[in-house]
Specification:
Elements: H1 8-36, E1 45-52, E2 58-65, E3 70-80, E4 83-90, E5 93-99, H2 101-110, H3 118-128, E6 133-141, E7 144-151, E8 154-161, E9 166-173, H4 181-200
């Protein structure tokens, strides 16, 4: 079971115990969603689901579907004295996104969500979360970079350790909190994000 005292190597091992099973089970759910919503023409469906593994790990996964694409997201999470922590693995990459309790505290606070249930907060986050457009700001040490990552409802700030294939999402700010050069980066990265999303969802 994932616990706060684990280091990155231990976290990866714990994720590896479950991930292929979670992906396979989510694929069965996807088939049911598509069957229940045929025809998909003109529809976009975003659903989130809970899963508890035999290793007692808590997962949330999401399907974002229209007639052209099926996009999944996966989070393994736990709640401790520090608050809510989650890790996002990927089916096509060895990188991990590690969301700190501070990130979720600010996400909840700065979007004025007022959610007290951690699971409900994660479902809200997953429903809203589609993609990031990254800008690497400065190298703080070899293979370690600070980043600025634009989403549709705000910006994630954090640190990337390329040698460990690890993004640490430290905090979240809304677009209206950006200042100076951040506004220019946001405009450029938001444009990139819009282009990406336009290629992913074309409803006709």
């Amino acid at each position: 079971m994932l616990v706060p005292s684990m280091n990155l190597s231990e976290i990866r091992k714990e994720i590896d115990k479950d991930f292929q099973i979670v992906v396979r089970k989510s694929t069965y759910v996807l088939q049911d969603i598509i069957k229940e919503n045929k025809p998909l023409r003109g529809k976009r469906i975003i659903n989130t689901f809970d899963y508890i593994s035999k290793h007692k790990n808590t997962w949330i996964y999401k399907w974002d579907i229209d007639k052209k694409i099926t996009l999944p997201n996966y989070l393994i999470w736990y709640y401790s004295d520090r608050g809510l922590t989650a890790i996002e693995p990927f089916t096509n990459s060895d990188y991990l996104f590690y969301y700190t309790s501070h990130y979720f505290k600010r996400y909840n606070e700065r979007l004025n969500l007022g959610i007290t249930d951690p699971k409900k907060l994660l479902h809200t986050f997953m429903s809203n979360h589609i993609a990031y457009s990254f800008e690497f700001l400065e190298q703080v040490s070899p293979n370690v970079w600070k980043f600025f990552a634009v989403t549709k409802n705000g910006v994630a700030l954090g640190t990337c350790i390329n040698s460990l294939k690890y993004y640490k999402m430290n905090t979240f700010i809304t677009h209206d909190m950006l200042k100076g050069d951040q506004l220019q980066m946001k405009a450029f990265k938001n444009s990139e994000l819009d282009k990406y999303l336009a290629t992913m969802h074309k409803l006709d």
